[in-house]
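Data card: per-record layout.
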Amino acid sequence: MLRNASSSGVCSVNPAALLLALAFLAFSGVAPLGAQSKPETSATPTAPAEGQAAPTSAVTPELIAQGDKVFHGSGNCYACHGSNAQGSVGPNLTDAEWIHSKGTLEDIAAQVTSGVPKEKSKSGIPMPPKGGATLSDEDVKAVAAYVYSLSHK
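The structure for this 153-residue chain is written out next.
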């Protein structure tokens, strides 16, 4: 029983009984009416399907062009990923298959920044942070935009 009658005729709630009742409701999957969620409707927005990245306005033609220069120049990315980015020592960057991330712009930038240690590399060949090059944060953003553009056409 949740209430105890007092001598004044006013009902009070027994805290231990209330906690026990709430614990029962929580473990039984029953929620109080106020906490029930509304059923989803067709108007409810959904997240992109797994493996698909939401479009990003951060990938501009100018940033892609700068990333192309870094990829084929000071970043030396082409040395492992090939001049056409279709892979050689490193994986293909032009297809929809992502080995070490979901392929979002943010994931690609993080991957370039941190690299891939030998123990996580599918080929057993590590990718050093920033490909072993001296890249600025702006260079990383640009090369990530370029790689993103190759696989998200």
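Known properties of this structure: Residues 7 and 28 are 35 Å apart (CA to CA). The chain has five helices and two strands.

See the next section for split statistics.
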